[in-house]
Amino acid sequence: MASACNDPNRERIMTDPMLITPRGRFKLQPGETLLTALERTGHAVEYQCRSGYCGACRLQLAQPEQAAHLVYPSPPLAYVGPGQVLPCCCQSRGPISLQVEVAQSAAEPSCEVVMPLA
Asked: Which of 41, 42, 34, 37 is nearest to 70 (CA)?
């Protein structure tokens, strides 16, 4: 049996677009914004405009070095500080860990959880 370190899929898994939150790890769909992915996976996130104008959806990255994976197809008008993301208008090219509070009554995700977190 091959160890995880020798797994040929390990590099792909480490770089695939993935949303990582306290609820688990979720694959991102092609062209999907982080806000859409958060909603699809049962996370409740405050938002207003869905276009990057207001900044109401601003979240902190759990791992600021992952900011290099973020892509804004159109530059947002709201300020985005270091280690922050506007999920309403942002996509990711790799794994992205977000600090998202989990509501006690959050709905179960309507997608496959790649790897639940303890």
From this structure: 34
- From the list 80, 52, 51, the residue with the least C-alpha distance to 67 is 80
Could you read off the pLDDT of 39-92 as tens digits, one per residue? 999 999 999 999 999 999 999 999 999 999 999 999 999 999 999 999 999 999
Q: Which residue has the tokens 């999907």?
A: 32
* Model pLDDT, residue 56: 97
Q: How many CB atoms lie within 10 A of CB 69?
A: 19
Query: Would you say 25 and 114 are in contact if contact means Cβ atoms under 8 Å apart?
Result: yes
CA-based radius of gyration for the chain: 15
pTM for this predicted structure: 0.77
Task: Name the phi and psi angles at 14, rounded to 5.
Answer: -70, -20
CA distance 108 to 23: 10
66 contacts 34 by C-beta, under 8 angstroms = no
3-state DSSP helix/strand/coil % of the chain, to nearest 5 = 20, 20, 60
